[in-house]
Design goal:
250 residues; alpha+beta; 8 helices; 37% helix; globular; disordered N terminus
């Protein structure tokens, strides 16, 4: 092959390369997830996991809807949903789960506005003989403005920083809520299909920094800004979660 032939092939490759790159970029941008998310979102494994967790949280809350007394849902200032929290161990049990918090945003309209989901983690120890591992769905309702302020600090411990109580169950049991309405946080769990109020004293709720970056990007909003309601839900999964919260807590 002479020098002129080699030079011509190099020119041909150089001319085609930009077209190949452009087509590759167009193929990537046509992903179904990209259309639903905020600009520049990185669909890493962590991002996909957060999307799946949002879907699980929305489904869980939808299933809990008819089991929560109206008096409780109307008063709630914030809600924390943790699908599939794992607890287990031997002699001393441990628990850990990841989910989302959202709070009522200032709004004078008839339809309450809820903030974009803020990723959280729940962890803590529980004394007692426990063998094996068990998955438990967890729901917490912050019932007071003071409890909401403590949640906005991005970390608090149930029973220490805020008063907590097992929440009443059942739409027809409004009178049964009187004894528990003084608690700042009402908590519920579902295990093996059984939904009930539950004591979660000692559990620590705090912002999940990794999940926040996966959902909102490295320079995303802080915990307080998210729960204040000044940030729009970034994608379809977030908007669906907020919609289910609105329907459940009205």
């Amino acid at each position: 092959m002479d020098n002129r032939t080699t030079t011509r092939k190099v020119r041909d490759i150089a001319a085609v390369a930009p077209i190949v790159i452009a087509l590759s970029g167009a193929a990537c941008s046509s992903s179904p997830r990209t259309e639903a998310a905020s600009p520049g979102a990185d669909y890493s494994k962590a991002h996909v996991e957060v999307m799946d967790r949002l879907d699980d949280a929305a489904k869980l809350l939808d299933e809990f809807r008819e089991k929560l007394p109206k008096a409780v849902t109307k008063q709630a200032r914030c809600i924390v949903v943790v699908p599939a929290m794992v607890r287990g161990g031997f002699i001393v049990g441990a628990r850990h789960g990841e989910g989302f918090a959202t709070c009522r945003a200032p709004d004078t309209s008839d339809q309450a506005t809820w903030s974009a989901p803020a990723p959280i983690s729940v962890s803590g120890g529980s004394a007692g003989a426990q063998i094996g591992v068990e998955s438990v769905d967890v729901l917490m309702l912050v019932q007071s403005d003071e409890g909401m302020k403590k949640l906005l600090r991005s970390k608090f411990e149930l029973g220490a920083d805020v008063s907590a109580s097992a929440g009443p169950v059942g739409r027809g049991r409004e009178a049964a809520t009187d004894a528990t309405m003084k608690a700042e946080v009402l908590s519920y769990t579902r295990s093996r299909g059984l939904f009930a109020g539950a004591e979660l004293g000692g559990a620590v709720v705090k912002q999940d920094d990794d999940a926040t970056r996966a959902l909102y990007g490295a320079s995303g909003p802080d915990f307080r800004t998210l729960l204040a309601g000044s940030v729009a839900p970034p994608d379809v999964a977030s908007r669906r979660f907020v919609q289910v919260v609105r329907e459940t807590m009205q």
